[in-house]
Design a protein that fits this description.
Layout (H helix, E strand, L loop, with lengths): L2 E3 L2 E2 L2 E2 L5 E6 L3 E2 L3 E6 L2 E3 L6 E2 L12 E2 L11 E6 L3 E3 L5 E4 L13 E3 L15 E2 L11 E6 L3 E3 L5 E5 L11 E2 L11 E3 L5 H5 L2 E3 L12 E3 L16
Antiparallel strand pairs: 1-4, 2-3, 4-6, 5-8, 6-7, 9-10, 10-12, 11-13, 14-15, 15-17, 16-19, 17-18, 20-21
Length: 236
């Protein structure tokens, strides 16, 4: 394999007493050997030819894994695929072959970043956290998770999240923290409501300690009446 020669002319072998040459074909390297026809035998050595390594047109696009193509030589085929977190634009198996000119045939594989799921539907995120900036992200994009209005962080502040579609944890729908670790939802607690405004308006209430989403009762305080003319509570 990989040897070319001129020991046949017009479909016929050379005849007794003639000479010919054998050399390495394109995509191979080695020497040239001269052979002599001593009918019916060709006298001489066959050149030792080694295939060349392909170094040009290596499969290359964002998210494409080409490690199987490293070191491939003339005639060899490698498999190209997408890195974790990426997927082929069109389903199928993709290959590339090392050609005699030292370049690979284009595999036609195009890899796209995969989309993460909805963090709002993940465990621990519904009802208290705001992850709206994390919706519709693809692998490698980031967002910030905060508390919903009326809620405060119990400990740390807003947390950063990264869409890491290669992270196989359905509870986090593909998101990790900025260091690539499993993403934990922030602890958001209900904010306590202030009663200062109620007291300034001449109201009595049972709203002390009430937090976001809870209810309480207010009424006109002693010596006050409602703005619509209704009387306040009777004197004690």
């Amino acid at each position: 394999a990989g040897i070319a020669h001129n020991c046949a002319k017009f479909g016929f072998s050379i005849v007794h007493g003639e000479r010919c040459a054998a050399w390495c074909d394109d995509g191979f390297f080695g020497g040239v050997e001269v052979l002599h026809c001593n009918a019916p035998t060709l006298i001489g050595s066959i050149p030792t030819c080694k295939p060349k390594v392909c170094t040009k047109n290596l499969p290359d696009s964002s998210g494409l894994a080409r490690s199987d193509c490293q070191g491939k030589v003339t005639g060899e085929t490698c498999t190209v695929s997408c890195y974790d977190g990426y997927g082929p634009a069109f389903p199928g198996s993709y290959y590339s072959t090392c050609q005699a000119d030292g370049s690979f045939i284009d595999s036609q594989l195009s890899c796209l970043p995969l989309r993460c799921g909805s963090l709002a539907r993940a465990d621990g995120y519904a009802g208290t956290t705001d992850s709206s900036t994390c919706e519709g992200l693809v692998h490698g994009q980031g967002c910030i998770v905060t508390c919903l209005p009326g809620f405060d962080f119990e400990n740390a502040g807003p947390s950063g999240a990264i869409c890491n579609a290669a992270f196989h944890d359905t509870k986090a729908t593909g998101f990790t923290d900025r260091e690539g670790r499993k993403l934990a939802p922030p602890s958001c607690v209900r904010r306590k409501c202030s009663t200062v405004a109620l007291e300034r308006l001449g109201l009595r209430h049972d709203c002390a300690g009430v937090s976001t989403g809870q209810t309480c009762t207010v009424s006109a305080a002693q010596a006050y009446e409602y703005a619509d003319g209704r009387g306040g509570p009777p004197p004690p």
